[in-house]
């Protein structure tokens, strides 16, 4: 009697959760035998609130803050000189826009920030990688890094003005000096925090320093580099305001200095919110990039 041929196994495809698979992989749907006693059930899809929970809760908190601020300002517990309300700040913003000076101030401050911050990143990242990878280089430059990082940049502004003039060059120097050390130190820490056992395994397989640096040290330091860039953003924005406070022809810091000295508190808040908004957008963008490279870490 001829043996009956076995029927081919039929499979069902079940989607993974999340649908795009795990970070850094190209996993597609899971295939399981149709008659298998073990069945997997995909997690239910997330609601709109769950997908944007952080944004919605944060926006709600900001809205409550501004409503409370306006209520206190409307009650006139304090004079508008001490605490202008959001409506007063908005009116001051429209006044500055109509005057035409605000666009020039934003353009000058933005130019100074972009050039100074870009130079800090171009110098801080390569130097941090080299100092972290080669200990003897770190031993040479570490005293200078510590000295300049601990020195308040504001005390160097008069020297920068003498050396570079009252133009944008001295402001760029202050911004660069404020951001470069945060980037450099974090990058150096990223290289030094690499797993020593992983490096030993790579060397045991005959990998050279250049290959290890390119395939292990540099990718492993990316989260630290992005953290340094994020911290450097705040230092650079502080440098913009501080440098323009001392001596400048245009810029948001100069506008805030003049408004403060003439008791126009609303205009001071305008400059404050513009600089804070720029920092918020830059920080948010760097956080998104950081989460992309840091997706393997557990999220709270």
List the helices and strands and how they pair.
Elements (H helix, E strand, L loop, with lengths): L10 E4 L15 E4 L14 H4 L1 H23 L10 H14 L1 H33 L1 H16 L6 H8 L3 H25 L3 H9 L4 H38 L5 H10 L3 H29 L7
Antiparallel strand pairs: 1-2
Helix pairs in contact: 3-11, 4-5, 4-7, 4-9, 4-10, 6-7, 7-9, 9-10, 9-11, 10-11
Summarize the structure.
This protein has 300 residues and is mostly helical. It is built from eleven helices and two strands. It has helices spanning 48-51, 53-75, 86-99, 101-133, 135-150, 157-164, 168-192, 196-204, 209-246, 252-261, 265-293, and strands at 11-14, 30-33.
What does this structure look like?
This protein is mainly alpha-helical and 300 residues long. It has a domain at 85-293: Orthogonal Bundle (MetI-like fold). The chain contains 11 helices and 2 strands; from the N terminus they run E-E-H-H-H-H-H-H-H-H-H-H-H. The protein has helices at 48-51, 53-75, 86-99, 101-133, 135-150, 157-164, 168-192, 196-204, 209-246, 252-261, 265-293; strands at residues 11-14, 30-33. The termini are far apart. Mean pLDDT is 80; it is low at 17-26 and 296-300.
């Amino acid at each position: 009697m001829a043996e009956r041929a076995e029927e081919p196994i039929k499979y069902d495809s079940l989607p993974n959760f999340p649908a795009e698979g795990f970070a850094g992989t190209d996993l597609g749907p899971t295939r399981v035998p149709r008659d298998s006693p073990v069945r997997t059930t995909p997690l239910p899809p997330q609601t709109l609130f769950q997908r944007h929970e952080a944004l919605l809760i944060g926006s709600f908190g900001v809205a409550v803050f501004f409503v409370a601020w306006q209520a206190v300002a409307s009650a006139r517990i304090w004079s508008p000189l001490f605490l202008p309300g959001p409506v007063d700040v908005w009116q001051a913003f429209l006044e500055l826009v109509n005057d035409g000076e605000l666009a020039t101030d934003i353009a000058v401050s933005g130019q100074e920030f972009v050039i100074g911050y870009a130079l800090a990143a171009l110098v801080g990242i390569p130097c941090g990688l080299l100092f972290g990878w080669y200990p003897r280089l770190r031993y040479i430059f570490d005293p200078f890094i510590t000295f300049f990082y601990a020195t308040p940049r504001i005390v160097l502004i008069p020297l920068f003005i003498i050396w570079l003039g009252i133009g944008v060059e001295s402001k760029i120097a202050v911004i660069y000096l404020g951001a470069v050390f945060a980037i450099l130190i974090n990058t150096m820490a990223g290289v030094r925090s690499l797993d020593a056992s992983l490096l030993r395994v790579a060397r045991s397989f005959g990998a050279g320093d250049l290959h290890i640096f390119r395939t292990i040290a540099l990718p492993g330091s990316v989260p630290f580099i992005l953290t340094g860039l994020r911290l450097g953003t705040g230092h650079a924005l502080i440098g913009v305001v501080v440098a323009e406070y001392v001596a400048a022809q245009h810029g948001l810091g100069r506008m805030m200095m003049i408004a403060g000295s003439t008791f126009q508190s609303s205009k001071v808040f305008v400059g404050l919110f513009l600089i804070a908004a720029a920092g918020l957008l830059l920080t948010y963008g760097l956080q998104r990039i950081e989460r992309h490279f840091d997706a393997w870490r557990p999220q709270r």
